[in-house]
């Protein structure tokens, strides 16, 4: 059964009670949600991007990491060879790591608040400048299984997503953008409330 056949079957069945794609309580009774994606997306790209953006499944824990690139050139050869550790966060499209300055775990009702803030972003696959200076790294968990991780930059308004290269037949990572509006500021405010960033007010390249 192909992935597209599976989607068609699921669409005809009633959503189970524990459906992770169910709307948040605050969204119930509101206007029907309709995702908007730019022209040119393939079916696979649209489906994959939805899973990590507008339709990100419900999660029960978020690990928030306050991150930044080292003062030395993060793109030099030494950085690309730097091993991952519990003190670094991967920026996968670049194949390098940002430094972690602090971290916090969010659970309970705060997860739903973060999920609503994340899904409310004005996503744009083609948005975001051609740079990335992350302020926060995020890992979303459900039953101790990681659903998704990414680093987010407010200076360039982008983050990375898993993607699929149909020509090469392999999974990869790509950039995804969001509008620099009140919704983006709301998410940043929530993250700073849960984990104040020690460098956000002094290093403009962190995205603050």
Keywords:
5 helices, eight-stranded antiparallel β-sheet, 208 residues, disordered C terminus, globular, 8 strands, 23% helix, alpha+beta, disordered N terminus
Characterization of this structure:
This protein is α+β, with helices and mostly antiparallel strands. It has one domain (3-206). The chain has 5 helices and 8 strands; from the N terminus they run ααβαββαβββββα. It has helices at 3-12, 43-52, 77-80, 109-119, 182-194; strands at 61-68, 88-91, 96-107, 123-124, 136-142, 145-153, 158-165, 170-178. The protein has an 8-stranded antiparallel β-sheet. A hairpin with a 4-residue loop joins strand 2 and strand 3 (96-107). It is globular, with a radius of gyration of 17 Å. Residues 1-40 and 202-208 have low confidence and may be disordered. Residues 19-38 are annotated as: Disordered.
Calculate the mean pLDDT score and round it.
76
Strand order of the largest sheet: 2-3-1-5-6-7-8-4
Beginning-to-end CA distance, first to last residue: 47 Å
Helix percent band: 10-25%
Oligomer: single chain
Beta-strand segment tally: 8
Largest sheet: 8 strands, antiparallel
Q: Count up the helices.
A: 5
What's the SSE pattern? Answer: HHEHEEHEEEEEH
**Total number of domains:** 1
Low-confidence blocks of residues: 1-40, 202-208
% residues in beta strands: 25-35%
| Backbone structural class | alpha+beta
The outline comes out as: globular
Radius of gyration using CA atoms only: 17 Å
